[in-house]
Design a protein that fits this description.
alpha+beta; Jelly Rolls; five-stranded antiparallel beta sheet; 5 helices; about 35% strand
Length: about 190
């Protein structure tokens, strides 16, 4: 289930949307394309098999020249350093498409007056326009398998975004808050 939350310039939670149409509409206003592949349970096993057509369509639609698969598991040795890079607001030259094969992934985008946070789960993908200011998180103990497609040079370094960054919730805090706001929080009693 996709979730979109808006934040003010200081990082305070404002609105929450769980409707696919509303998520796509809000992101389209930022030049971002969000979508979902059918049958997400079969994605990791079939993305390079029976999902070739969908993958080819994404590559063609966004002029992707390179593709990388990123797999993170709890206790991945490189995760703390990679997490710091992902959580720091940055931008890239070309379009970047992130397809979540399994697990959960949180994307933050800078807007004119604050930020938008998008929680993506297995089967969902997001295409970021070139030069968009954004950050990502996969949580304290990530279980994430995703594809990253680029229209530009994948080896090009990320450029730090200018301007002060707000203190935005980590993936873990985002999920916890979202569950409380939507009435799905687990009772500890």
């Amino acid at each position: 289930m996709g979730v979109l939350a808006t934040f003010d310039a200081e990082g305070r939670w404002a609105d929450t949307h769980v409707c696919d149409g509303r998520i796509a509409e809000q992101l389209a206003g930022l030049g971002v394309v969000w979508g979902r592949w059918p049958d997400p349970e079969s994605l990791p096993a079939t993305v390079f098999g029976s999902r070739q057509a969908e993958l080819a369509q994404l590559r063609e639609r966004f002029s992707a020249q390179s593709i990388e698969r990123v797999r993170l598991e709890p206790h991945t040795a490189t995760w703390p350093a990679l997490r710091r890079q992902w959580r720091a607001e940055h931008r890239r030259e070309g379009v970047e498409v992130r397809c979540v094969l399994s697990g959960t992934h949180l994307l933050y985008l800078r807007t004119g007056d604050g930020f938008v946070g998008v929680l993506c789960e297995a089967g969902e993908w997001v295409a970021l326009p070139a030069g968009s200011s954004h950050s990502f998180d996969a949580g304290e103990a990530p279980e994430l398998d995703l594809l990253r497609l680029w229209s530009g040079d994948a080896a090009a370094p990320m450029e730090a975004a200018s301007g002060a960054s707000a203190s935005l919730p980590s993936l873990d805090a985002f999920v916890e808050t979202m569950l409380v706001l939507t009435g799905h929080a687990a009772d500890d009693e």
